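User: Design a sequence. Structure:
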C-alpha cells in the first residue's frame, strides 16, 4: 500500500508551519515538516504534537545539495513518491531596504536557485496528478520589474530557463558593480534581491508547468499576503494560520485545471504578465 505524502520546505515557523498544521488536519496521508536546523524542526514538531497532530520530520536545507539528496533518498526508500510539495523555504531582507552584494547573493540562492535543485532532485518523485506550489510574493509579480529589456524577455511566451537565469545573473552583476539603477525595479529598487528572486520563481513556475503537463501535475505560484511573521518583523495584515488558507486550497481543493497560474492571497488568479499593473510590493505597507 502506498501512502500519500505531502512535503513543506522551510516549515518550522511562519506560513510553512501553518501549512503543515492545516495538512495534518485535512490531508489523508503523511505530512513532512522540514527545516534547515534540526533542533528548531523538532521543536516545531513537538508544538504540533501538543495539538494532537503528528507530522513526520526530516532535516532539509534547500541550498545544500547533499541535504536535498538525503531527503530524496529517504522519501524514495520509504514511500516511493510525493503527492504534494510546497516550496516555501525563503528568507527576506525586511530590516534593510537595500542590501550588500553578499546579502543579495544569499537571498537569490535561497529564494530562487534552491528551487532549481529541488526541481532536479525532487520533482521526479512527484506522482502523476500531484500538486506543486511555489510560494512567491507580491514581489514576484512582473510589475516589480521596470527595465524594458527584462520585461520583454520575461514576458515572452517562449520564455526559457536561460532567460530567467540570465535575468538573475544580470541583477547580481549590477549589484556587485554598484550599477543597479533605481529605475530598473519598482519602488526605487527597495528589497531588490527579494523581488528579483520571486519574479524568477513566478516565471519558473510556468516553465515547470509546461514540463510536467504530461503527467497531469499542477504547478502554481502564489502571493500569501503580508503576514505577521519573523520574516516581516511582525508587520502584516493577517496571521500565518489565515495566510495558510489559500495555499491549502491550492494543494488540496483547487480544480485540476488551475495550472501554471499566479494566485493572489484571496484566491484571485492574476495576469502575471501585466507589467503595468499595480501589484508590486510597496514599502509604505511596512510603515506602521
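Assistant: Done.
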Amino acid at each position: 500500500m502506498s501512502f500519500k505524502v505531502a512535503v513543506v520546505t522551510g516549515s518550522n515557523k511562519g506560513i510553512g508551519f501553518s501549512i503543515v498544521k492545516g495538512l495534518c488536519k485535512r490531508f489523508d496521508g503523511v505530512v513532512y515538516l522540514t527545516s534547515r536546523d534540526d533542533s528548531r524542526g523538532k521543536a516545531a514538531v513537538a508544538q504540533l504534537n501538543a495539538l494532537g497532530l503528528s507530522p513526520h520530520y526530516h532535516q532539509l536545507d534547500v541550498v545544500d545539495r547533499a541535504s536535498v539528496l538525503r531527503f530524496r533518498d529517504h522519501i524514495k526508500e520509504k514511500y516511493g513518491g510525493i503527492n504534494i510539495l510546497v516550496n516555501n523555504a525563503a528568507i527576506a531582507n525586511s530590516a534593510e531596504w537595500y542590501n550588500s552584494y553578499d546579502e543579495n547573493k544569499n537571498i537569490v540562492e535561497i529564494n530562487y536557485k534552491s528551487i532549481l535543485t529541488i526541481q532536479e532532485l525532487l520533482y521526479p518523485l512527484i506522482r502523476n496528478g500531484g500538486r506543486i506550489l511555489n510560494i512567491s510574493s507580491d514581489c514576484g509579480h512582473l510589475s516589480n520589474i521596470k527595465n524594458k529589456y527584462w520585461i520583454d524577455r520575461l514576458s515572452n511566451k517562449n520564455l526559457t530557463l536561460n532567460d530567467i537565469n540570465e535575468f538573475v545573473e544580470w541583477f547580481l552583476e549590477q549589484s556587485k558593480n554598484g550599477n543597479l539603477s533605481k529605475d530598473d525595479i519598482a519602488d526605487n529598487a527597495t528589497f531588490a534581491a527579494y523581488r528579483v528572486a520571486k519574479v524568477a520563481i513566478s516565471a519558473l513556475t510556468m516553465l515547470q508547468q509546461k514540463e510536467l503537463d504530461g503527467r497531469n501535475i499542477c504547478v502554481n505560484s502564489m502571493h500569501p499576503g503580508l503576514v505577521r511573521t519573523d520574516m516581516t518583523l511582525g508587520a502584516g495584515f493577517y496571521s500565518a494560520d489565515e495566510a495558510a488558507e489559500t495555499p491549502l486550497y491550492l494543494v488540496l481543493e483547487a480544480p485540476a485545471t488551475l495550472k501554471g497560474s499566479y494566485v493572489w492571497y484571496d484566491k484571485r488568479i492574476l495576469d502575471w504578465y501585466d507589467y503595468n499593473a499595480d501589484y508590486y510590493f510597496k514599502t509604505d505597507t511596512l510603515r506602521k
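The longest strand covers residues 126-135. Residues 5-96+109-138+201-279 form a domain with the Rossmann fold fold (CATH 3.40.50.720).
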